[in-house]
């Protein structure tokens, strides 16, 4: 570090007694210390400038997430205002995540009634299926959200929708009040056990037809789908 004024005055008497060669070496040493101190100051100054520039850039740079992520995240927070803003800005209510979940699925799981109504008003598909063929009604019925189940039914939810495991919404419902509502509405719509069996059989028949077609074409019966599952 460079010497201050008092240090220089204290050294003057000593320097005066040095020979010419010794004075030269002393001057070179002192200059070296000054240059080292100056270089350190420049380094710290540059580091500070880069930090300020980085902070400024961070303030100016906005991270852009995919629309589906943004909408589902706002839905998961039950942020009705942001959901409305996103929909009004052109973000599609049909967007899904990697599991096929829509924003409507998400808020049916979390029982966010106002967001559900907002999405339905915006034209969200009430019978959208995720990768496991779960509809929003499956989600609401499983969670026992009676009010949401009623809202979805009024919006045209399919009571006979069959998921990948062969279950309809009422199969998954353990909440008494919600199950009673489903049974009442199914009775009002004239849904009988024969009709339930028929709809459940449609899915099984389609799967059987796919297997037969695969066998006839010489396909690999042990091939795995995107989820790692085989036909067995």
From TrEMBL:
It holds the Pfam family Ank_2. PROSITE patterns: ANK_REP_REGION, ANK_REPEAT. SUPFAM superfamilies: Ankyrin repeat. GO terms for cellular component: cytoplasm. ANK repeats lie at residues 99-131, 132-164. Gene3D superfamilies: Ankyrin repeat-containing domain. Transmembrane segments: none annotated. Keywords: ANK repeat, Repeat. One of its GO terms (molecular function) is enzyme inhibitor activity. This is (spotted green pufferfish) hypothetical protein. It comes from Tetraodon nigroviridis (Spotted green pufferfish).
């Amino acid at each position: 570090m460079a010497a201050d004024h008092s240090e220089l005055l204290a050294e003057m008497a000593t320097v005066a007694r040095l020979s010419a060669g010794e004075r030269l070496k002393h001057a070179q040493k002192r200059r070296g210390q000054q240059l080292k101190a100056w270089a350190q100051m420049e380094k710290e100054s540059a580091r500070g400038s880069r930090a300020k520039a980085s902070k400024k850039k961070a303030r100016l740079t906005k991270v852009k997430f995919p629309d589906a992520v943004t909408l589902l995240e706002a839905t998961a927070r039950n942020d009705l205002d942001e959901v409305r803003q996103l929909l009004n800005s052109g973000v599609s209510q049909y967007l899904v995540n990697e599991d096929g979940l829509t924003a409507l699925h998400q808020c049916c799981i979390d029982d966010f009634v106002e967001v559900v109504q907002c999405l339905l008003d915006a034209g969200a598909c009430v019978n959208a299926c995720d990768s496991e063929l779960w509809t929003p009604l499956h989600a609401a019925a499983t969670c026992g959200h009676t009010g949401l189940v009623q809202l979805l039914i009024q919006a045209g939810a399919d009571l006979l929708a069959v998921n990948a495991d062969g279950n309809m919404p009422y199969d998954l419902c353990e909440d008494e009040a919600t199950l009673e509502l489903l049974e009442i509405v199914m009775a009002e719509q004239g849904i009988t056990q024969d009709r339930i069996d028929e709809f459940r059989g449609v899915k099984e028949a389609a799967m059987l037809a796919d297997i037969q077609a695969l066998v006839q074409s010489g396909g690999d019966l042990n091939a795995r789908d995107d989820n790692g599952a085989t036909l067995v």
